[in-house]
Design a protein that fits this description.
Helix content is about 25%, strand content about 35%. The protein is an alpha+beta fold.
Length: about 750
């Protein structure tokens, strides 16, 4: 390789053990570490489950010579594995790193020189200037330095990104030093470059730039001399973006654009045992904006359950063209023995190279399900669906404002003792805070911008991450793995509907779904004031499970009865976020989680339901299915026999009756009645305070309780599955928790909040 080039060094570790894996970076000589990322996922194979940990290092060649990447160590428990050292030969002048693409060298050689000589200048090279939606545009920013100016610089010039809106961009690594030298008007210029590939997302004129470059000079020749910083900007550039043609557009077109696309199924036919999960993937390959290619639509037959998995996006550069593949993964489970035939799926796309629409068609998928010893899903029958919702108070007294309680407490004695003040405020019922008006019905474009902003607050630079990289970032931010996968897929659907250029037949349904999802996973809890767009980001993260035809048109109860438990989880989670005071939503959410085999998540949902309706028989029977826990956990997950709201309501009634008896001068049991009212109010307040204790439940056994919030920190203890811990704080994707006298850190994905 040449000086300035980049090496991507990947370490992939597979293990069947649940012990944490530590990957130690290899020693480096002559190479600089430019960046690193690490993620971990569970892979379900025919021979069982295994955990795959991947660490990717981006290394830059610093100077010519023969160097090596040393041995990397992988440690798990008492086992140690090492990688062999790799030799690297770096050639070339580190101040003039060659470009890897001949097309880039041609673009630089043909670029117009700066108009003003003897000064540092920045120019934008844009190819092509007239494009169709979905077509690639190469944006090259060139910084021209006169040779005598460049030799005074101690560090390479630094580019500031061009201000570009309404595009999907890919930043390409470029040599940090001089990439070319040009002779203009008898003067030698050294050129620095930055390359970016963009895909316009809307039709019409698109303004690019200006780009800027910053550099500095030392004031003196001393090594410790202070440097003076200079910034130079380029002019703007304009691209004309044409809409996709209407003539010849297929009816099922959903905005896919590219060139030379292919569609493959893996496998195209297989057999499995009833209740056994088998992986299935669909891979789109070709040139274009891989990240925005929509998911193929299959018509799955009844009796074959489909659980969407992680979406993988791989992007590479051939010359200056971007190409890659996008893989959609599924888990198929058959409910009964027989043959299931999935009809072929059509995938039309616009080929911007030929200027016409092309229709891809998959082969049909045949699944043979046989009776066998495969794992049944679920292994234990889940509780039944409720025929009617449990009764709860129409207004929760413990959530009334403080002044309402003070008014109820003071009004009766004031009236009884003949106060002349006229209290015009209502003593009972309180004054509920007026809720803000419902957000006006927006558009998909506006909703997509709010979704992107909310996702950016949760995951910095989310707009530049796709597929497994964004899933890993969301998991580090505290989003559970299935939810993170659903977020990425829904974001692609939303962007495809807004920017894909095709007609969205489910625009209204997608808009409603996005508004629901926006209010739960990323938004704040409802505390009496709702942010319209904060409510709009919760259910974009919760209801994105699987095919939209199922999630949008079938009720959660019907999904439960049909056995579509994953879709039912998203449906009831969305309903619980919108109406958290309905115990029926939490009960059915627990039923769905229990059917999927997640007893801890089911326990949390049923505890929420029991705290709202503690005497409902079905809820109590369901909660009894989750088994016993340790005494500390039972204390944090305690369910009162009477809700705090019921106790406060009874206290208010008794208080009123007692002071009414005082006013009527019936002093028989007045004192006892008032004392009972005070005790009931105190009990209600006690229950409300206990329920507000921040609590989380551990999902998996042997979960390490680390002494610091990072993966390689030493575990101070290990927690059992179902253990309840008190949440004392949070930092990024970690939670500081307390379990008895022990205190430590756990990952957000390892626990679920109560």
């Amino acid at each position: 390789m040449a000086a300035g080039d980049t090496i991507v060094f990947t370490i992939r570790v597979e293990t069947r053990s649940s012990d944490p894996v530590t990957i130690e970076d290899p020693p480096l000589a002559g190479l600089l570490l430019a960046g690193a990322r690490e993620n971990s996922a569970v892979d379900i194979a025919s021979d069982g489950m295994r955990r795959v940990t991947t660490r990717v290092l981006r290394l830059v060649a610093a100077q010519p010579g023969a160097w090596s990447i040393g041995a990397a160590r992988v440690v798990q428990g008492g086992m140690v594995a090492t990688t062999p050292p790799i030799g690297v030969e770096v050639t070339g002048d580190p101040t003039t790193a060659p470009l890897s693409a001949e097309a880039l060298r041609t673009m630089i050689a043909e670029a117009a020189p700066p108009e003003i000589e003897n000064e540092v200048a920045v120019t934008l090279v844009v190819e092509p200037r007239v494009v169709t939606l979905g077509q690639q545009v190469d944006l090259l920013a060139l910084a021209w330095f006169p040779r005598e100016v460049r030799t005074r610089m101690r560090a390479p010039a630094a580019f500031e990104n061009p201000r570009v809106g309404g595009v999907w961009s890919y930043r390409h690594p470029m040599p940090a030093g001089v990439v070319a030298t040009r002779r203009v008007g008898g003067r030698t210029y050294d050129i620095f470059a930055q390359h970016e590939t963009i895909f316009p997302l809307r039709e019409g004129p698109l303004v690019l730039g200006p780009a800027a470059v910053s550099y500095s000079f030392p004031l003196t020749f001393s090594f410790l001399s202070r440097e003076v910083r200079h910034v130079v900007q380029s002019d703007s550039a304009v691209i004309s973006v044409r809409a996709l043609p209407v003539v010849g557009r297929p009816s099922g077109f959903r905005g896919a654009a590219g060139s030379g696309l292919t569609l493959e199924l893996e496998p195209s036919a297989f057999d499995l045992a009833v209740g056994e999960g088998r992986p299935f993937s669909v891979t789109l390959s070709g040139r274009g904006n891989v990240a925005l290619w929509p998911e193929p639509e299959f018509r799955w037959p009844a009796g074959l359950r489909v659980y969407p998995g992680e979406v993988g996006v791989v992007v590479a550069r051939t010359g200056v063209e971007l190409e890659g593949n996008k893989t959609f993964r599924y888990l198929l489970v058959a409910d009964s023995a027989g043959t299931y035939r999935v009809p072929p799926a059509d995938y039309p796309y616009f080929d911007w190279r030929t200027g016409r629409y092309v229709a891809l068609r998959t082969v049909g998928l045949e699944v043979m399900a046989r009776a066998g010893t495969g794992r049944s899903l679920p292994t234990v029958a889940a509780p039944d669906v409720l025929d009617h919702a449990p009764f709860v108070l129409p207004v929760e007294p413990t959530k009334l404002p403080l002044w309402a309680g003070v008014l109820i407490a003071l009004a009766p004695p004031v009236l009884v003792f003949g106060s002349r003040l006229r209290w015009r405020r209502r003593a009972r019922g309180g004054r509920e805070r007026a809720r803000p008006a419902a957000a006006p019905k927006g558009t998909l474009a506006g909703l997509e911008r709010h979704f992107a902003a909310a996702l950016e607050r949760l995951v910095p630079a989310a707009e530049r991450q796709d597929g497994s990289e964004l899933v890993a970032a969301l998991r580090a931010a505290g989003i559970e793995a299935p939810r993170a996968v659903h977020v990425v897929r829904l974001r692609d659907r939303l962007r495809q509907a807004v920017y894909g250029g095709g007609q969205a037949p489910d625009a209204d349904e997608l808009l409603a779904e996005a508004r629901e999802v926006l209010s739960g996973q990323l938004g704040e809890r409802d505390t009496g004031q709702r942010t319209p767009w904060g409510t709009v980001i919760a259910i974009v993260l919760v209801t994105a499970t699987g095919p939209p035809l199922v999630a949008q048109s079938v009720s959660g109860e019907a999904l439960l009865r049909a056995g579509a438990y994953a879709a039912a989880v998203d449906s009831f989670a969305a309903r619980a976020l919108l109406d958290p005071d309905d115990p029926g939503h939490w009960y059915h959410l627990g039923v769905a989680w229990f059917a999927l085999g997640s007893e801890e998540r089911a326990r949390v949902a049923w505890i929420r339901a029991a705290r709202l309706a503690p005497r409902h028989r079905a809820i109590r029977r369901a909660l009894a299915r989750t088994g016993s826990t340790d005494p500390r956990s039972r204390s944090l997950m305690w369910v009162a026999p009477v809700t705090g709201g019921e106790a406060v309501l009874a206290a208010a009634v008794l208080w009123m009756v007692g002071w009414g008896m005082v006013a009527a001068r019936r002093r028989g049991a007045t004192t006892a009645l008032l004392a009972i009212a005070v005790l009931a109010a105190a009990y209600g307040a006690f229950v409300a305070v206990r329920y507000r204790t921040p609590t989380a439940v551990v999902l998996d056994g042997a979960t390490p309780l680390r002494e610091a919030p990072y993966g390689s920190a030493t575990p101070v203890d290990r927690l059992n599955a179902g253990a309840a811990v008190r949440v004392a704080g949070a930092r990024g994707g970690w939670m500081l928790v307390e379990f008895g006298s022990r205190r430590g850190w756990v990952m957000r994905a390892e626990v679920v909040r109560l």
